[in-house]
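Retry 2 of 3 after timeout on previous attempt. Resubmitting structure tokens to design endpoint.
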């Protein structure tokens, strides 16, 4: 890269230098110029792939390019991602599929292909890591980056490096990203949402308080719908109102959250960009094609899902101390139940049996649209499943599971089935 440290701005399409007064690039004619008084001083970025799942599907099938695309779990599921054409009709992520199709009946619905999305996500992540080792993933398609101190390495300030990165991802991987650049994580994340898709927005330190003043309180990290309603009852709807309140008053009203409101409303965020950490949980869930209320129908599905969670744990060399059961009713009410084990496990048998015990307590005739099982409090597999000297049958089941794993490794996953999962549809997710 050439040295662009002295420039006040540049063209995002051809990267030629540009001033803040021009409307179009003098080199390529593009209107996508980037200029900011603090452009060369900022190094904390948030990168977010645009409508990621849908973008990958459109990349792989050009016939979908001009069509509304929804990636989701069929009529019974929810929207995972909607392309921007579908979003014009009001379709949003996590919206029930039936509602999305009412808003956009012409949408092309595609079943998620998580293996493919994970592969593309890894490609993008690998390119991020070429920019800086300080990459903190938030999900498969977004991450924070800290490019502080990398100017000598790249021969250019962070803004220029990030714009070049966005061009390369679009050219080489075939999807687009939006970039937010600031001096802290909170405002970098806010900035990346300002100009989607293919956006690049900057929020500097000098403008932070003014920028935030007229924004709704929901722009603050941690303020969801319920807490926003609480604030509204107290007459607080904008960030500017929070800025005018004393920290002590906010903490008196809202406890620890009051301190966060005080700091973030003023653009104060000292959280560091932390490189990728270990997974906090391993789980599997499925949204049914029809509501299921009967225990004898739920149990085989739970067994298949437990086996999938177990396989992931064994492959990763980890185990979990707590089993978590997740259920969602037909009216989208979520039930989560968990139980801490006497020792960590990675065995499908222990995960399943604990899950069944939790499930039996919840089956009361209520129809469920979703079932999930997983483990948390992860630890190294060397600590998992010590011999049970009291329950001899449990030890026999553990040995049998090990034998089944060997057969499946040699002959394929469907080589051996338990009585629970025979003729049971495969667990998704």
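Retry 2 succeeded. Sequence:
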């Amino acid at each position: 890269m050439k040295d662009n440290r002295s420039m006040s701005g540049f063209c995002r399409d051809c990267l030629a230098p540009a001033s803040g007064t021009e409307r179009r690039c003098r080199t390529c004619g593009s209107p996508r110029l980037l200029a900011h008084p603090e452009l060369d001083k900022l190094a904390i970025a948030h990168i977010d792939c645009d409508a990621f799942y849908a973008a990958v599907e459109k990349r792989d099938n050009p016939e979908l390019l001009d069509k509304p695309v929804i990636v989701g779990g069929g009529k019974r599921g929810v929207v995972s991602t909607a392309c921007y054409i579908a979003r014009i009709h009001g379709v949003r992520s996590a919206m029930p599929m039936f509602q999305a199709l009412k808003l956009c009946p012409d949408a092309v619905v595609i079943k998620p292909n998580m293996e493919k999305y994970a592969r593309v996500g890894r490609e993008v992540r690998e390119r991020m890591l070429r920019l800086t080792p300080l990459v903190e993933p938030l999900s498969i398609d977004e991450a924070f980056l800290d490019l502080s101190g990398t100017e000598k390495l790249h021969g250019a300030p962070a803004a220029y490096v990030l714009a070049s990165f966005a061009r390369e991802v679009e050219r080489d991987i075939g999807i687009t990203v939006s970039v937010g650049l600031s001096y802290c994580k909170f405002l970098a994340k806010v900035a990346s949402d300002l100009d989607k898709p293919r956006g690049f927005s900057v929020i500097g330190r000098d403008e932070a308080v003014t920028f935030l003043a007229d924004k709704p309180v929901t722009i603050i990290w941690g303020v969801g719908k319920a807490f926003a309603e609480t604030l509204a009852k107290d007459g607080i709807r904008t960030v500017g109102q929070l800025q005018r309140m004393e920290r002590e008053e906010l903490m008196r009203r809202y406890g620890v959250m009051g301190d966060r409101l005080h700091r973030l409303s003023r653009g104060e965020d000292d959280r560091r960009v932390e490189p990728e950490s270990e997974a906090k949980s391993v789980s599997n869930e499925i949204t049914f094609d029809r509501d299921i209320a009967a225990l004898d129908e739920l149990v085989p599905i739970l067994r298949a899902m437990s086996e999938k969670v177990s396989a992931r744990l064994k492959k990763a060399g980890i185990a979990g101390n707590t089993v978590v059961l997740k259920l969602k009713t037909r009216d989208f009410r979520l039930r989560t139940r968990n139980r801490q084990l006497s020792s960590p496990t990675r065995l499908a048998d222990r995960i399943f049996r604990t899950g069944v015990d939790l499930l039996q307590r919840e089956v009361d005739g209520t129809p469920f649209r979703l079932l999930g099982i997983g483990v948390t409090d992860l630890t190294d597999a060397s600590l998992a499943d010590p011999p049970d000297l009291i329950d001899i049958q449990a030890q026999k089941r553990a040995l049998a599971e090990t034998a089944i794993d060997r057969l499946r490794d040699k002959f394929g996953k469907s080589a051996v089935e338990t009585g629970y999962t025979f003729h049971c549809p495969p667990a998704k997710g």
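Attempt log closed. Confidence is low (pLDDT under 50) at residues 1-7.
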